[in-house]
Amino acid sequence: MKLHNQIVFITDADCRTGSSLIRRLTEEGAQFILNSRSGGAAIASELTSIYAAGSQAFVVNIDLCSRAEADEMLKEASLQLGTVDILIHNNNVVMPASIESCEEERFLQSLNVNAKSAFICTQAAGKQMADKQSGKIIYISSIHAEKPTGSSFCYSASKGAVKMLSKEAALVLGRSGINVNTIELGPVEGDNEKFRSSLSTLYNDYEYKVPNAVLGDYDDLAELVLFLSSGESRYINGSDIRLDGGFLLHYMNFKMKRP
């Protein structure tokens, strides 16, 4: 098992990303700290699988933008499980927003949910990792840290902030044996709804903008997260790994592969 007794902190357990990560990492012997807005109700089957595998899960519902709450939660978790070995920040909220008309409150909300939470969790978990001179931090971000969405500029801005946070963290925390990397996830099923916009055609026929016209899924993401969480990735630090099947190469409507 690649993650036997490693303690993995997942910041959004309830989403589809969280479910896939829990299933895959359970198979590798991980123990979990799971931030769940539903208090565990939305991940009941995943929790059953964790316990059936002989692993443990510490389920919480905290404000990830509060350093005090994060510190207190990790202190409690350390008494039950131990300190964090792997932080996976997978907060990913898309709010429709035009740069011409977006209200300040919505802009700040997007930055808080997607970016400030990453900063707070990095500080809190990073301190535990630095104390033992080892750890992994993985930000599950988006290709829209690189390219506009056309439908939610504040989302792109928040993911761009996470991109630079990862670089700064890799430089500083790397001196304490901590690897910090970002996965820039591309389109999966449902993203045409997530990024639907009257201003942009980017996600119209988006499945055909993947050169092979085959979309990836969250299981593909889980495999990459497993690799970055394991000792096999020991010399990868400060990297952005694009997981998009080549979507950005077909960013515009150019010779799409149609059935």
From TrEMBL:
SUPFAM superfamilies in the record: NAD(P)-binding Rossmann-fold domains
Residues in the signal sequence: none
Pfam families per UniProt: adh_short_C2
Record's keyword terms, sorted: Oxidoreductase
GO molecular function: oxidoreductase activity
Family stated for the protein in its record: Belongs to the short-chain dehydrogenases/reductases (SDR) family.
Name of the protein in its database record: 3-oxoacyl-[acyl-carrier protein] reductase
